[in-house]
Amino acid sequence: MKGTLVLAAMPAAMGAGLFAEGAQLDEWDEHTDAVASLVGLTKERLELSEQVAAAKYWSGQPIEDLEREAKVLHDVARRSAEIGLDPEIGTTYFRTQMEAGKRLQRRLHAMWRERPDSRPDFSPDLADELRPRLDRLTDEILLALKVIDRG
């Protein structure tokens, strides 16, 4: 399931213009490394969605928080501009990431309701533990997107 979600984010990256035409062959290795990094970071971010789902499940917080999502996308646009990445590329990628994360969280919540024995026995702290990790991944993903977009 997670692999499918990682692959689902790649067309959004392609649609956002991340794979520039006319890249020189000598830039290929750098782009290849950045794409591999992006896939790994995307997978890591989606894996954190499982812990986010657990935190929201046990706290009763809703999966969808449009106000928080808007804040994150605004921050992504700002951070993108700061590093010289087109903010539209950053926000498109992260909008897709957030949608994939919410789909995963919904599936997990449904499974935990149907099969209580499958529920996690822990509840990570969303604000103090998970969001700082997500912020670190956001910075790393934006840097990988910048390398890919340079073409």
Describe the protein's topology.
Layout: H1 2-15, H2 28-59, H3 66-83, H4 87-114, H5 126-150
Helix pairs in contact: 1-2, 1-4, 2-4, 2-5, 3-4, 3-5
Account of the protein in words:
The protein has 151 residues and is mostly helical. It has one domain: Chorismate mutase (Chorismate Mutase Domain, subunit A, Up-down Bundle), CATH 1.20.59.10. It contains five helices and no strands. The longest helix has 32 residues, at 28-59.
**What Rg, in angstroms, do the CA atoms define?**
16 Å
Rough outline? elongated
Structural class, from secondary structure content?
mainly alpha
Low-confidence runs: 1-8, 11-19
Q: What name is given to the CATH topology?
A: Chorismate Mutase Domain, subunit A
CATH architecture: Up-down Bundle
Distance between the termini: 31 Å
CATH class (first level) name: Mainly Alpha
State mean pLDDT (0 to 100 scale).
85
Counting DSSP E segments of at least 2 residues, the number of strands comes to 0
Name a few traits of the molecule.
single chain; elongated; mainly alpha; Chorismate Mutase Domain, subunit A; 151 residues
